[in-house]
Amino acid sequence: MRLVLMIFAVLLVVGLAIGKFKGGGADAGKKAPSPILAALNQSYAGPLCVYEGPFPKVGREVCLHCSTLRDAGLVERVSLRQPDGSELQGHDLTAEGMALYDPAAPTANGKTAPGLCFGKARVAEVIETLPPMRIGSVTHISARFTLQIFDRTPFVHSPNIALLKQYPYLPLAEGREVTQPIITTLSFAASGEFLEADPGFRYGKWVNEK
């Protein structure tokens, strides 16, 4: 009996390993296999922030995101007079930016950094996945899913958030906490290790979808 149980256990493990990336279609998507769900959360869940600061940033201080933050109405150009009477040009937060700014904003790796934050995200539903496509030793799986945005600020509903070009699934419609469906392609190594998510890589029936 012990031998029979050991053989069954081995077959079960092998079966799970073989079937890890098999299947696809709507049913497979709704079941949300754990590697797919984990990969989506690793790529898309967590704080929604643009990390920049501290402010004001003047003179030769680098401000990588000031251009898009200015377009979104969160920072503005300023001229600050120095003790010697000279003036330094730069950027400072607007009133709307001040409401979003956190000098110790949480990051995805558990650390903190200055930034403007709008909420947090987690995978709400994996709607559908396509059958895996293998290229060399890498397995690609396209997934259509939605995100739930929580601890959100009113700015996630503003059209100006689209000007940041960092979160293409925003803004949220007023009164909603779940995004419209998002498509991305997940890549896995032969070992099963998650490599990356690429929303621009499409195949199968979604090849022409935006």
Summarize the structure.
It contains five helices and ten strands. By secondary structure, it is α+β, with helices and mostly antiparallel strands.
The coarse silhouette is elongated
Content-based structural category:
alpha+beta
How many discrete structural domains?
1
Largest sheet: 7 strands, antiparallel
| Helix/strand order, N-terminal first | HHHEEHEEHEEEEEE
Rg calc: 23 Å
Query: What's the tally of helices?
Result: 5
Describe this structure in words.
The chain is α+β, with helices and mostly antiparallel strands. It has one domain (about 25-205). It has helices at about 1-20, 25-30, 35-45, 65-70, 95-100; strands spanning about 45-50, 55-60, 75-80, 85-95, 100-105, 110-130, 135, 140-150, 180-190, 195-200.
How does the SSE layout of this entry go?
Elements: H1 2-18, H2 25-31, H3 34-44, E1 46-50, E2 57-58, H4 66-71, E3 75-81, E4 87-93, H5 95-100, E5 101-106, E6 112-129, E7 133-135, E8 138-150, E9 182-188, E10 194-198
Antiparallel strand pairs: 1-6, 2-4, 3-4, 5-6, 6-8, 7-8, 8-9, 9-10
